Every structure is written in C-alpha cells, then in structure tokens.
Amino acid sequence: MLPSTLITGASKGIGAATARQLSALGHHVLIHFAHDEAAAQAVASECLALGAASAHVFQADLSHADPLVQEAAVQRLFAFTDANLPPLTGLVNNAGIVDQTARLDQMSAERLQRMLSVNVLGPMLCAREAVKRMSTRHGGHGGVIVNVSSSAVRQGSPAMYVDYAASKGAIDVFTAGLSKEVAAEGVRVCAVRPGITDTGIHATGGEPDRAARLGPSLPMGRAAKPEEVANAIVWLLSEQASYTAGTILDVTGGR
Prior knowledge:
By secondary structure, the chain is α/β, with parallel strands linked by helices. The chain contains 9 helices and 7 strands, in the order βαβαβαβαβααβαααβ.
C-alpha cells in the first residue's frame, strides 16, 4: 500500500515543498489550506505531475476563537481524508502563523488567542485525529506525525513575536510527550525546527525582506530554502527514520 499523507498549510512554503517531495515518492497527498484555494489547487496539479498516487485539497480554518468550532473543522478535514485517501500513514503539522512584530505589552488578547489556536490547538487536534487512525490501540497499522516547530523557541523572539516563539515551544513539549505516549503503538512523533526560511510567512509579520536581510548573518551565510526543510520532514516520515521518535531536528544552517 502506498503511503498516505496529510500536510496542513500546504498551499505554499514548507508545506507545499513537502507535498511535492512526497509526491515524487508516489504518496497519496492531501493538501490542506486555510484561504488560498487557487494556490492549493496549483500545488495539487504539480503533485500529480510529479507522480503522486493522488492529490486532493481541502479547506479548513484552524483559527476560530471557539475551540468547538475549530475541533469540528479538524474533524471535517479528517473525514475528507478518510473518504478520499487510503488509511493515513503520515501527518505533517505544518500550518502556522506569525503576526506583526510587536512587544508583548502591545499585543491584544485576540492576537494571543489566534496564535495559540492556530499554532498549538490546531496541531494537537490534528495529531489526536491521526493517532485515532494510526495507533494499533485503535486498530491502526502505525504511522508518523511530524510537527513543524521553529528555532524561535531558543531565542524567544523578544520585541518581535514572543507569542509565536511560545507557541512553538509548546509544540516542542507536545512532541516530546506524545512521542512517548504512542511509540509502543506504532506511531512515531517527531518535529523539525526550521531557522530563518525564505517563505512568505515573513510578509505576514510585516517584514517581507527578513530572509534576505538576515540570511547573510547566519553561519551558512543564507536563509534556508523551503525544500531544505522539506528534506528533513520527508526523511522523518520515511522508513529510513524507523527508529527515530521524539526527535526535534534543527534545520537552521548552524544558527
């Protein structure tokens, strides 16, 4: 049976690069998106051209203030996955946001709630649904969950977005705990921790040139390409990483 992988936030950036690379390996892929359907459909077309066994798209807004509404959106996403793909073997929790650079004393409660909804609650709900399908405890045949964290957890992003850094710190702790919870049930849980990567996420923080501006200051002299982070995700999903669980893999160019 060919692998079947759901990638959240896959209409662009790291998620799209991951979908393309998995497609070249023959995966069935489901490309989740929040807003840009045209971009998601374009990625799906590329995935089919690269050799995906199938490529589907599904919209779900993972930022709702009401956790029950957010939970229902996640459940619809997984119901669509069940209906259109073979049994799920991989989940890439990639969907995430930043906001405008600011100090904590300038941040609204609404901003903080949205950050935690998208970057923490969303991945946890998605992982919960994946475990229900993958775990041998629930009659599954195993699988892999890869969470996308950030090197911001080490610096804390002061006077920029401490809320984002804190949300990714939660992902690191969640990865460590869940990996131990389900390792004996055939489910490996890992994470990648990208450094500064040349994607559109910086523009949403008001700094569209951030990767180009800060890249030369990094040990390797440049920002990462999305494909370089995707390489690590794809490896963690593969059988080559069959004894790797609980690992948080830095992809930071030496930072």
